[in-house]
């Protein structure tokens, strides 16, 4: 079974400007492109991101069942997988770039399902659970995030922004829908408990992810008779893929552009995540009830979907990198409003909507900027490395802010420090240089021109 199809079937750029032609081109995408996009969305539904709502109910059930401290449950089920799992993404991206998406996704999906099924068999052994959970997270990220951004980038070169946005929407909607389902399964009337739920989830992963990687995931292939000279092909065991245009990994990571993008996204993402994880205590300190805070978090999620879709379409229709600035600026503005607000419910919702919109837009920003500045030659590796660094920020920032609040007795110092970091993120985005010319599949990889 081939892993790719002719490049001529990719979604072409519209010859007419305007949103109507932009959406029409996306709607008229070839069947293989639509199937690949659908496959990416399905993979995100059962990815660690899509299933993240489960841990909220798993941790207390595990603590009650085993007698372990809740802090130990959070460490094992949340912190370690979140911090260690994404580290594999740069290496997985390298394999995707060299071997192709399906050759990485298929075995990763099989191992993801198998390791998830092993989790309840570890019983109350915290070390064994930690090892299996980390490995399941690793292969979950490899079968999902390491693959889907590369597939979208190659199939939808003129619609990457909206493609990346749909990926984020899929995981966000999955987490929202699955949240009450997991509560019902684990501690509700279904009575499966945390062990039975993991076995059910493993079966769902196997039924959804494995067939998806086999039948839906693909990448476009170089045309049989290209009209322009092409670079030599990269060959490997049982693979013959074209070299895509772009900047090599080692050169890209030494540029100011990549460093600015990565630091900016890491700092900006820390703001909304920290507010979400500390929302009850932070806003109770400002006179809001838990019920009001819960509703404001729902507003944050709704705004994140708008940010994903709106931000993605805006990115696809612009050649100016400074459009990123107002998207990221929503974070420090939202943090400041949340910090100074005491008792005003409308202002609370304004702050959460701003943070939510920025959260959604940031999900599409990283892969879009990497593909736009550095091309596709090392895209999966660069995206994996950027995502790994951003995930470290997401995992550490809520804990650090909470620890500083405990030490100082107030959120003033940590929140102001966090706000300052998000301002730095906006400044770094504002000084990004002009985009290079569009990279074209079928052209030789750039080996001479490096972004300024």
TrEMBL record:
**SUPFAM superfamilies tied to this protein:** MFS general substrate transporter
Q: Name one Pfam family in it.
A: MFS_1
Protein name according to UniProt: MFS transporter
Record GO terms (molecular function): transmembrane transporter activity
> Chief localization class?
membrane
- Tell me if Transmembrane is a UniProt keyword of this record: yes
**Domain Major facilitator superfamily (MFS) profile residue range list:** 36-437
* Localization (cell): Cell membrane
Sorted keywords for this record are: Membrane, Transmembrane, Transmembrane helix, Transport
- One GO CC annotation, please? plasma membrane
Tell me what organism the protein belongs to.
Streptomyces liliifuscus
Identify its membrane topology class.
Answer: Multi-pass membrane protein
According to the record, the segments passing through the membrane are 35-59, 71-92, 104-121, 127-149, 161-186, 198-217, 257-275, 295-316, 323-341, 347-370, 382-401, 413-432
Tell me the PANTHER family matching this sequence.
Answer: RIBOFLAVIN TRANSPORTER RIBJ
Q: What is the lineage of its organism?
A: Bacteria, Bacillati, Actinomycetota, Actinomycetes, Kitasatosporales
